[in-house]
Amino acid sequence: GENVEQHPSTLSVQEGDSAVIKCTYSDSASNYFPWYKQELGKGPQLIIDIRSNVGEKKDQRIAVTLNKTAKHFSLHITETQPEDSAVYFCAASGEYGNKLVFGAGTILRVKS
Amino acid sequence: GAVVSQHPSRVICKSGTSVKIECRSLDFQATTMFWYRQFPKQSLMLMATSNEGSKATYEQGVEKDKFLINHASLTLSTLTVTSAHPEDSSFYICSAWDYRKEEQYFGPGTRLTVT
């Protein structure tokens, strides 16, 4: 089955700096890669996703890149703000609507 | 994004009793919903996949007789924790697949405490 590894487990950055979180997956058949942000005591919130027919996607300060050959994808947050502090999870899915396999999560701390 | 609600947000129950958690997709129909369990400082663990009108598919190691799932309509799935014990205390989160957007949205979670 699919296995998703996520690094780093914790990341501290200064406000205004960029943050990068990386994930690798094992199943070459996976074709959907969402990223979720989870604040303490709340459910995960979808922030961006990418499908295997696209190499990069951007939404304001957030971007995701996908390298299918290497089987890894990354989340890039630019101009970080204190409210970006949260746990971020990457995930992979083998087909639309199918179950997601999650990475272990990254605790992002943005210091002001 | 699409809205998924869960009720209750918090519940405390006595050991041996059953607890029902509801998950609703508020602005879209969801033929597939998922139930997760999350321990403190850990990732989400998929418990089961709930398909409208059919039996749920449970992940390995999840007791289907203990965690009863019903997906009676396109907007509602329920998880019933039967004969709850303190080790069932956890954060339970549902999600729903929005086939229009081909994206999965999560509910706010339910904190279950069994005393």
Describe this protein's structure.
The complex is a heterodimer of chains A (112) and B (115). Chain A has 112 residues and is mainly β. Chain A is built from no helices and eleven strands. Chain A has strands at 4-7, 10-14, 19-25, 32-38, 45-51, 56-59, 62-67, 72-77, 86-93, 100-102, 106-111. In chain A, the strands form two sheets. In chain A, strands 2, 4, 5, 9, 10 and 11 form a six-stranded mixed beta sheet that branches. In chain A, strands 1-3-8-7-6 form a five-stranded antiparallel beta sheet, with no helix packed on it. Chain A is globular, with a radius of gyration of 13 Å. The relative contact order of chain B is 0.34. Chain B starts with a strand and ends with a strand. Chain B is built from no helices and eleven strands. Chain B has 115 residues and is an all-beta fold. Chain B has strands at 4-7, 10-13, 19-25, 32-38, 44-51, 57-58, 67-73, 76-81, 90-98, 103-106, 110-114. The chains are: A mainly beta (112), B mainly beta (115). The interface between A and B is medium-sized, with 19 and 24 residues.
What is this structure's SSE topology?
The complex is a heterodimer of chains A (112) and B (115).
Chain A lengths: L3 E4 L2 E5 L4 E7 L6 E7 L6 E7 L4 E4 L2 E6 L4 E6 L8 E8 L6 E3 L3 E6 L1
Parallel strand pairs in A: 2-11
Antiparallel strand pairs in A: 1-3, 3-8, 4-5, 4-9, 6-7, 7-8, 9-10, 9-11
Chain B lengths: L3 E4 L2 E4 L5 E7 L6 E7 L5 E8 L5 E2 L8 E7 L2 E6 L8 E9 L4 E4 L3 E5 L1
Parallel strand pairs in B: 2-11
Antiparallel strand pairs in B: 1-3, 3-8, 4-5, 4-9, 5-6, 7-8, 9-10, 9-11
